[in-house]
Amino acid sequence: MRNEAFDRATLIFSLFDADGSGRLTAGDFELMAERVIDAAADSDAAAKSAMIAAFRKYWATLAAELDSNQDEEIDYDEFIACVLSPERFGETVGEFADALAALGDPDGDGLIERPVFTALMTAIGFETDNINTLFDAFGPDDADRITVATWVSGIKDYYSPDGADIPGDLLVGKQPA
Ligand SMILES: [Ca+2]
Ligand SMILES: [Ca+2]
Ligand SMILES: [Ca+2]
Q1: Does residue 101 lie within any of the structural domains?
Q2: Model's pTM, two decimal places?
Q3: CA 163 / ligand 3 centre spacing (Å)
Q4: Is 74 helix (H, G, I), strand (E, B) or coil?
Q5: Strand stretches in the chain, DSSP E
Q6: How large is the greatest C-alpha to C-alpha distance in the chain, in angstroms?
Q7: Angle of helix 128-137 relative to helix 114-124, nearest 10 degrees?
Q8: Has residue 153 been placed in a domain?
Q9: How many domains is the chain built from?
Q10: Running DSSP on this structure, what letter comes out for residue 70?
């Protein structure tokens, strides 16, 4: 596993611990889903329902695969094992990526404007500067939009244990000065 993958997973753990308890629980994912849905002002009910379902499936997969001591919480040590076995999470991450990117494209034209992207990523908890740097790295067009496909593959890369020097690393906040 690459150090970058470890750093990315560590950041995700801290963000998904939405209530700051130091462990992941079903409640964290409900809280996070609520925040993200609230940020998707222009999305329709179907897209919001798909996102909520994706968060719940994400939690169910984590709980099934990583809760070694079966206390219905995922602590940091349990969570970090996920980056070692991406084959157990690929499908869930894929559905999560599709649902999140769909929320970024409420008008369905396949393009995501920067303010929509920023609102969703802020709701998840990423830093504004890092979000903007990531958006730039995705190569926005002249109208400052990226494609849904670019974001979906960016999310999948983020979870890849072998990914290094990828745009998602910009979210970790270790950018050169
Ligand atoms: Ca928590
Ligand atoms: Ca546990
Ligand atoms: Ca759009």
Answers
A1: yes
A2: 0.90
A3: 28
A4: strand
A5: 111-113, 145-147
A6: 51
A7: 130
A8: yes
A9: 1
A10: -
**What's residue 82's pLDDT?**
73
Domain of residue 11, residue span: 3-161
- Judged by its nearest atom, the ligand closest to the C-alpha of residue 22 is 1
pLDDT for 102 equals: 95
**Angstrom distances, CA of residue 170 to CA of 51, 74, 133:** 24, 26, 7
Contact indicator for 142, 113 with CB cutoff of 8 Å: no
CATH number at residue 35: 1.10.238.10
C-alpha 34 – ligand 1 centre gap (Å): 15
Question: Which ligand number lies closest to the CA of residue 73?
Answer: 2
Give domain status of residue 59, yes or no. yes
User: Does any domain span residue 167?
Assistant: no
Mean pLDDT, all residues of the chain: 91
- pLDDT tens for 41-64 read 899 999 999 999 999 999 999 999
